[in-house]
Amino acid sequence: MLAHSARAGSLSRLIIIRVQIKEVEVQPYELFIGLRYTRAKRRNHFISFISMISMLGIALGVAALIVVLSVMNGFQDELRNRILGVAAHIEVTGFDNTLANWRQVAAQSLRVKEVEAAAPYVEGQGLLAYDTAVQGTMVRGILPADEDTVADLGRKMQQGSLAALRPGSWGIVLGIDLAHALGAQMGDKLTLITPQGQITPAGMIPRLKQFTVVGIFRIGMYEYDSGLALIALQDAQKLFRTGDKVSGVRLKLDDLYRAPHVSEQLSKALAGDYYIRDWTQSHSNFFRAVQMEKHVMFVILLLIVAVAAFNIVSTLVMVVTDKQADIAILRTLGASPWSIMKIFMVQGAVIGVVGTAIGLIGGLLLALNIGVVVPFIEHTFGIQFLSADVYQISELPSKIDRHDVTIITLVSLLLSWLATIYPSWRASRINPAEALRYE
Fold it and tell me: By percentage, how much of the chain surpasses pLDDT 90?
């Protein structure tokens, strides 16, 4: 009884102080009481335990979201860079897949401000034969000096160099997986069979030409490492009988993300009928799948945050039950139902804010140091998350996206706030007479 009287006196003095200093706009008493309930040592330790679990759950969910999305962003950038190390940002060709005035097209394209470099190419399909092995491949004729300005192939060479592709020397550069499939090494003689055959009295005979392996590259993408062969542009023109024509012109931009916009500019700048395709169109299915996977992972991991946020509901319901007498006293002293709601909304919001802040800091630190943490775990437990032989990548890439971090933080805070509404509303509906009947 004495404890109850002391508590009532304390709350009475709090309300009187609130009335006296109302004119100077000091801290609202709802915020003061809500923070005090959060800091105070509760008689019911189970409530404190549930609050801590809710806070840690939110922190874990936020940290997991930041780390996983950062790793997926890193993978996406790594894959994009590997693909664009071979594929062009933009390709310009004719509607019949040939380009006669390619020099003029290249010159006009370079006048567009955002185009950095241009390189012609001749592309066709063929069969490569060595000893008893035969492999289908895409054959691309290039000018080595120009190709180095639009792609990273020169830096991906494992053996030899692109400069060895000299006109008339009939040299060929193979992807590493293609070379392994054929069993070919540097200096070996390969036979290239093309579908452009010769008509003879005996019928159509495929064209055959012998090439010497002068280089082997490794992009890290199986599609290219196992299915692409490079030869000199003039040799490709002779092999595929295109004359002075090429298949198209490959362009490199200073900002690859503006490729769709630059494509529109080129369609207006180039006089004639041309087919312009940027990398977002040529690999749209792949990047759309990666983006969808990222969205699905976001939703799945967000459930961790949601579960932790909904734990706030059970925490506040138990707090409201425990504090019914305090609520009744506040109501009898003139506190409005909305004020009671704000007290418990503050308490729940503190759990959400602290949990989100811990998760934000922990997630950013882990994402920034993923290259150190993962090798440490692998070394400690003797495991390997990524096999270089399978994934063509030996370490987890990570890229923190400010937009992703902002969305994660806001969603976490929103879920935490929504979780406080129902318990706070229940608290505001408590009848003072009923709550104090047995006090």
Answer: 22
